[in-house]
Amino acid sequence: MQRILSYLRKAVEDYNMIQDGDRIAIGVSGGKDSLTLLTALKALQRFYPKKFELEAITLTMGFDNFDLSGVQKLCDELGINYTIKPTNIAEVIFDIRKETNPCSLCAKMRRGALHDVALELGCKKVALGHHHDDVIETFFLSLFFEGRINCFSPVTYLDRKDIYLIRPMIYVPEKDIRGFSRRKALPVVASPCPANGNTKRQYIKELLADLNRENKGLKTRLFGAIQRSEIEGWKLD
Question: What is the pTM of this model?
């Protein structure tokens, strides 16, 4: 936790993610990343000089066999209010629209629903569990499949909803999250989505893992290149 907290606090301070009095909604998918973020932000809250409040939100997609009782127990232990919002996103994606490439539309629908619930709970910020590897993978997804140099920002302001998205784990390597999740026995809920593990992101993840083995430190250099680029929101003062 100390290692993850050091990364998280540095990102929060580098990009001015948290201010006094913030109410922050954490998007909890049930995966290792969001559960680690949930635990780490609660730990940060205990000593961080700027005072903030936390809410946890999970959207159910409409799949069967999605047991969130372990996540509820974790939130109860941490003292974080937990809201579960049912949706029919899976039905829209797979049954009604029969999407062959469902991830993009699914992500868009989940984002919209998450932001609405956050605002209902009085939260003007939403924390997402994107980590160091996600940053690099997203950059390559844009490059390979969209033909543009782009990546999500550490902090994003959505003016239509007057809400900020923050990504406090952008400095945390995925391997550290895996290790933390195993040691703490976090109640990870397996994704029931039929597209899970068979996506363009998984292809890029495996490609980058191979390249990093052949070129030690490649991911670190790529991340630094993103920070030094002209991609909106990444340049450090």
Answer: 0.91
* Domains of the chain and CATH, by start: 2-228 (3.40.50.620)
Whether the CB-CB separation of 152 and 138 falls below 8 Å is answered with yes
| Other beta carbons less than 10 A from residue 209's beta carbon | 11
| Sequence-ordered strand ranges (E) for 42-178 | 52-60, 81-86, 125-127, 155-158, 163-166
Return phi, psi of residue 183, to 5°: -65, -35
DSSP annotation of 140: H
CA trace torsion 216, 218, 219, 223 (10° rounding): 140
Contacts of 114 (CB under 8 A, 6+ apart): 25, 27, 57, 59, 126
Phi-psi region of 168 (alpha: psi -120 to 50; beta: other; left: phi over 0): alpha
pLDDT (tens digit per residue) in 81-119: 999 998 877 777 766 666 566 667 677 888 889 999 999
Contact 123, 55 (CB under 8 A): yes
- Residue 146's CB is within 10 A of a number of other CB atoms, namely 9
3-state secondary structure of 97: coil
CA dist 161 to 53, 68, 84, 111, 158, Å?
20, 28, 21, 12, 6
- Going 78 to 31 to 22 to 170, the CA torsion angle's sign is positive
Cα(109)–Cα(120) distance, integer angstroms: 17
